[in-house]
Amino acid sequence: MADTLLQINGLKIEATVFPPGEPPQDITIVDGVSLSLEKGRVLGLIGESGAGKSTIGLSAMAYGRGGVRITGGEVLVNGRDILPLGTRGLRALRGAEVTYVAQSAAAAFNPAKKLLEQVIEATLVHGRASKREAEERAIALFAKLGLPEPETFGNRYPHQVSGGQLQRAMTALALCPQPDLVIFDEPTTALDVTTQIDVLAAIKEAIRDTGVAALYITHDLAVVAQVSDDIMVLQSGRTVEYGSTDQIINHPQEEYTRALVSVRSIEHKEKLPTDAPVLRVKNITARYSGTQFDVLKGISVDLSPGQTLAVVGESGSGKSTLARVITGLLPPRDGTIEFAGRTLASDQKNRPREDLRELQMIYQMADVAMNPRQTVGTIIGRPLEFYFGLRGAEKRRRIIELLDEIEMGEAFIDRYPAELSGGQKQRVCIARALAAKPKLIICDEVTSALDPLVADGILKLLLNLQKVEDVAYLFITHDLATVRAIADSIAVMYRGEVVRYGPKSEVLAPPFDDYTDLLLSSVPEMQLGWLEKVIATRKMESAGN
Amino acid sequence: MHPVLKLVSQRLALGILLLFSASVLIFVGTQILPGDVAQSILGQSATPEALANLRAELGLNDPPMTRYFNWLYAALHGDLGTALTNGQDIATSMGRRLGNTLFLAFWAAVISVPLAIFLGLLAVRYRDRWPDKLISGVTLASISIPEFLIGYLVVYFVAVKLGWFSSVAMINDGMSLLEKLNAIALPVFVLVLVVLAHMMRMTRAAILNVMQSAYIETAELKGLSSFNVIFRHAFPNAISPIVNVVMLNLAYLVVGVVVVEVVFVYPGMGQYLVDHVAKRDVPVVQACGLVFAGVYIGLNMIADIVSILANPRLRHPK
């Protein structure tokens, strides 16, 4: 076992939590996890949020986030147990032998310092190279990672480069000290799919060329299948399954792994558009006050009653702005919104209560969309009072009805949002929207913050509710898998324009326009070698051009 | 135009506008004070003719607008008028007092600002351990005790009991710098105690706020020492709130030291103002008000400009 770089035996990690209204409790976050990683290999850690994967990753640097404590087991780096090391010993390890790539590079870079300075800092502090050597190394890494103008790239500040570039710079930061082990903690999760694929390819190439070992943490099995040699599946801090990538993807043994592999198995039969749309967006052009730039340029889409229109696009494409225009939060410069056959006032302040009732909204962040000091009953009961004047027993009966509809039940009526899981919170938000008996619900990235299996549950619920309540959804998302699962028609947005629009079967069938093709081909697929295939196809295409 | 230049010039224009509004307020404020300047100069026994003559001479019969603009015009040319009580030129006599106040404020600032920031960094480094608690406790106590009480306590123990320094901080032009510093040691000490807590606590809070950021974790995972993490990564991002509170305290050192100057009988602006308010010497009060407003607005303008310059997003636009 001379080549074993990282060996974790029986790791146990605990934290103290402060549940509302109860005394502090010690909970176990990671329990009895063992793994080993050899030089030059990549191990993928996969699981949903709360599975303990980041915590295990950081334990390789003996680092506990917040109040997290490593209370048992051993962590051997290069054959030496690092847990008993003191502050000084750990400092020598961190940033030198083991380095870390954070999930959100945009937040992980210091906004007040130039990139180059931050990339070479650890190398200099640990005396692993002279300043000139470190700078040369950084520039070489910038070039390898495909960053523009590698010579001068480092002279910029973090806010001057894009999110995808920052994530690559973060990888350069981790590789610059020439560590033995790099921990990648969800390095592409915050990126758009078309950006993700390039960063993924760059990371994979850098790992291969430098021969460094890596722990690759992600919740996306399709992503980890592209980069890792082995995969460990985690659930609630325990190992579910641990094996080679091929075995986990193609022959999963455990029920839970199988569920992860086959996530997004929703069957939804597309409905055809009708003649009388519930929502008709006509030629909308909009910009934010104080800017000179149209965020939306002549958008026109229709949505039939009881159907789902998915608006797909990357960040900055204007899809959320469209929601703001429809809800009247941002009056457009030009164009009209017709709703249930009447033209809506452009400003939400001038809309009658009936318009407000029939057009509801669900948000991405369920926990900030609810008042933390109100119970679930109060939150759902508010629209019942406001729109229908319901009081007392009648109101309570309707709240319970709604709670049953979202598959939660009466037991939750006196709970506070803090006591609910992420999926339950989103369900309560759905019930609140339904309480108004709307004709249309705008869903703005409602599943983006949720784990795949939980998101699946929410999507199924939304589809069932659509059947029962005959409500239409305008579904805003960047996730094409979600779109495939629930849409009847699709509008693909790019830089403020609808580049492709029609029934799902037409939009997702060739021939594609360039952007839709790029978008569709960038969605990671659950198969080995997918990344290489796509990159090779793209290289051939660009060579052909 | 570079956005920073635009923002800075906006701030400057705003500052000048503010100064003009302050001058209006000062003028109006001194006009609505009860009593009549001519009456207060000549006393209760003055004849109506004498009063009328003096009013005409002082221009008190002109409409308020005219008087305001005459005053402002003169003030802009450095002529702050003459004191009613002793007929001296205000600019000259106030200039010397202002110099003394700035001298005192300067040394108090030179000691307190770096000390406050250093103690703030130290408190963050040893957060919730005894150095932090000691620093917080002592500074909190010093800010809670009224400054005149601290002043008299210091005078009693250091000057009277121990006899190390003089209890009266008199300085004049004939003294060397060292003699002057010796003379102002006690008021400087009291002022440092008074302003230290505010700045130190703000530094601590601002840096602790930044310490929650993801990039601090990045710095820790680079294996940097705690002090390097705080000083090199957290501090540069906390400059803006720190500078703001530092400037407020510097302004206080110039404008608000009246009590301390009186305790130590120091010949500064505070003493000067208090004396002339008591004598209802309106032109002097106006002139002092204008200078104080200028100092206050000027320092806060500097704080704003430093905050703008400290923001890399503004300094280096995309």
Automatic annotation (TrEMBL), chain A:
The keyword Membrane does not apply. InterPro entries: AAA+_ATPase, ABC_transp_ATP-bind, ABC_transporter-like_ATP-bd, ABC_transporter-like_CS, Oligopep_ABC_C, P-loop_NTPase. GO terms for molecular function: ATP binding; ATP hydrolysis activity. The keyword Nucleotidyltransferase does not apply. Residues 11-261, 279-520 form the ABC transporter domain. The lineage of its organism: Bacteria, Pseudomonadati, Pseudomonadota, Alphaproteobacteria, Rhodobacterales. Keywords: ATP-binding, Nucleotide-binding, Transport. SMART domains: AAA. It is a peripheral membrane protein. It is found in: Cell inner membrane. It comes from Thalassovita taeanensis. Pfam families: ABC_tran, oligo_HPY. GO terms for cellular component: plasma membrane. This is Peptide/nickel transport system ATP-binding protein. SUPFAM superfamilies: P-loop containing nucleoside triphosphate hydrolases (SSF52540). One of its GO terms (biological process) is peptide transport.
TrEMBL record, chain B:
GO terms for cellular component: plasma membrane. Keywords: Cell membrane, Membrane, Transmembrane, Transmembrane helix, Transport. SUPFAM superfamilies: MetI-like. The lineage of its organism: Bacteria, Pseudomonadati, Pseudomonadota, Alphaproteobacteria, Rhodobacterales. One of its GO terms (molecular function) is dipeptide transmembrane transporter activity. The chain crosses the membrane at residues 12-33, 102-122, 134-160, 180-199, 242-264, 284-310. Its main location: membrane. This is Peptide/nickel transport system permease protein. It comes from the Bacteria. Signal peptide: none annotated. The keyword Acetylation does not apply. Belongs to the binding-protein-dependent transport system permease family. The keyword Transmembrane helix applies. Pfam families: BPD_transp_1, BPD_transp_1_N. It is found in: Cell membrane. Residues 98-303 form the ABC transmembrane type-1 domain. It is a multi-pass membrane protein.
